[in-house]
Amino acid sequence: QVQLVESGGGLVQAGGSLRLSCVASGLTFSARAMGWFRQAPGKEREFVAAINWNGASTRYGDSVKGRFTASRDNRKDTVSLQMNSLAPEDTADYYCAASKSIRGRFVSPYSVDYAYWGQGTQVTVSL
Q1: SS3 48
Q2: Cα→Cα distances 3→14, 25, 68, Å
Q3: Exposed, middle or buried: residue 25 (CB in 10 Å: 0-12, 13-18, 19+)?
Q4: Which one-letter DSSP state was computed for residue 86?
Q5: Cα distance between the two ends of the chain
């Protein structure tokens, strides 16, 4: 059974930082790209970041470029999202996801390209 479990969310003041983690089990983690998406109340799900299977390639949504950094540790089946300079508009539920493809050449920003999803962790940024 595949499980993706996010952690690290919480309440932070604007300008602060949080580090999200996602631990995977039941799948070939080291062979899959991992993505981070977020969804704020009343809004559509938004691509945040993705990292390819070996960590050599990353991709970010325009709204987080320069502030967020994705990384992974294939020895621990873990992907992380370091979030700096947080702003109230970053408030959302954050989800990690594992790609459908194995050792794919590209890092996708599209949710349809991800097969497995975590339950999410809530991030709230206050003024």
Answers
A1: strand
A2: 31, 5, 24
A3: exposed
A4: -
A5: 40
Amino acid 105: pLDDT: 80
DSSP β-ladder status, 18-25 and 10-13 = unpaired
Strands (E), the chain: 3-7, 10-13, 18-25, 34-39, 46-51, 58-60, 68-73, 78-83, 92-99, 114-117, 121-126
User: 85-103 as b/e, with b when 16 or more CB fall inside 10 Å?
Assistant: ebeeebbbbbbbbbbebee
Q: Do 97 and 117 meet the contact criterion of CB atoms below 8 Å apart?
A: yes
C-beta of residue 69 within 8 angstroms of C-beta of residue 82: yes
Q: Which tokens go with 79? A: 């992907």
**pLDDT of the chain, 127 residues: tens digit per residue:** 999 999 999 999 999 999 999 999 999 999 999 999 999 999 999 999 999 999 999 999 999 999 999 999 999 999 999 999 999 999 999 999 999 988 888 899 999 999 999 999 999 999 9
